[in-house]
Amino acid sequence: MTQRILGALSRISPRVLLLAMMLIVSAAAFEGWFLVLRAPWGEYRRLAATRESLAATVAMSATQQGELGRLTAELKELSDRLSGELHAPAPEEQLAVSLMTELDHAAARKGLTLTSVKPGARRQVLSFEEIAFEVSAQGQYLLLCEWLLDFERTLGRSATVTDFTMRSIEEGRQVGLTLKVVLYRPLRSGAEK
Q1: Whole-model pTM above 0.85?
Q2: What is the DSSP string of 136-177?
């Protein structure tokens, strides 16, 4: 039988034999790819895609953690500043004394004279208590203007000037200023109007 196979192969042209061998090798390579290499190659590609996805997620997570930390610090700073501005001394007498002290120190730094501080009306505005004070001071015009510009730093953002009047005194050498300052503080639970 071997003789007959060799005889048949010797009658075939070398080109056909080469083509048949290439076809057999190609079929074996295709079968090897399909059965042996395709599954690991697909797994490798899936793992590479997963690694890239996880790297992007970790980078985004680090960025979000940094942003979250920054926002937390900003929220704490705003909360501290707001609580510092809104928590005025509980009794009204202490509030008036504190206001007079702050205004007097600020006026003295500018070379002005604080002539009076009178408590005014109190009323509820939304969830805040509005406490008015009438304040009078005298001094040079530009110094009074600087003193007014520094009110936010002196009294905080919870204070507002709602009305003011300037008049010349001592034959124009000094100016008298009368203004209405309103402080806002949060209502305590159970507070009356």
Answers
A1: no
A2: EEEE-HHHHHHHHHTHHHHH-TTEEEEEEEEEEETTTTEEEE
- Give the pLDDT score at 85: 55
Write the DSSP symbol of residue 91: S
> What residues contact 185, with CB distance under 8 A and at least 6 apart?
86, 87, 88, 128, 129, 131, 158
pLDDT value of residue 22: 93
Cα–Cα distances in angstroms (integers) from residue 99 to residues 20, 74, 106, 131, 179, in the given order:
105, 29, 11, 11, 14
Q: Is the dihedral of CA 100, 106, 108, 111 positive or negative?
A: negative
- Residue closest to 137 by CA, chosen among 161, 167, 163: 167
Question: Residue 179's closest CA among 96, 103, 86, 105?
Answer: 103
Q: Which residues of the chain have pLDDT under 50?
A: 86-89, 190-193
Residue length of the chain: 193
pLDDT value at position 26?
93
In contact, 136 and 153? CB cutoff 8 Å:
no
Residue 47 has what pLDDT? 92
